[in-house]
Amino acid sequence: MADMSSYYRDCARSVGKDNFFIPGESSAGDAFGAYIVGRGRQPDMYLYSQADAVHMTNLSDEKYFIRGSGQGALDRC
């Protein structure tokens, strides 16, 4: 799904659409939803404090994310 969404974004850019948004729905819970948008984690990737978690951005260290490339299937769930 992430590969397909990447193709959609590339196609949109090729026709001049630089602000392309892919919404979706995840019905399998918040952990799986986070995985779909490219921000999911395995147990060994969890942060130690809530303060660290809320200060993360897309530029945070890739070791904390399953998809370090930033490629997600959806932009929001």
List the defining traits of the structure above.
77 residues, globular, mainly alpha
Describe the structure.
It is a single chain. By secondary structure, the chain is an all-alpha fold. It is 32% helix and 0% strand. It contains three helices and no strands. It has helices spanning 2-14, 30-36, 50-54. The mean pLDDT is 77.
SSE order and pairing:
Blueprint: H1 2-14, H2 30-36, H3 50-54
**Low-confidence runs of at least 5 consecutive residues:** none
Strand portion: under 5%
Task: Write the element-wise H/E pattern from the N-terminal end onward.
Answer: HHH
Q: Would you report the number of β strands?
A: 0
Q: How many structurally independent domains? A: 1
Question: How would you sum up this structure in a few lines?
Answer:
By secondary structure, the protein is mostly helical. The chain is built from 3 helices and no strands.
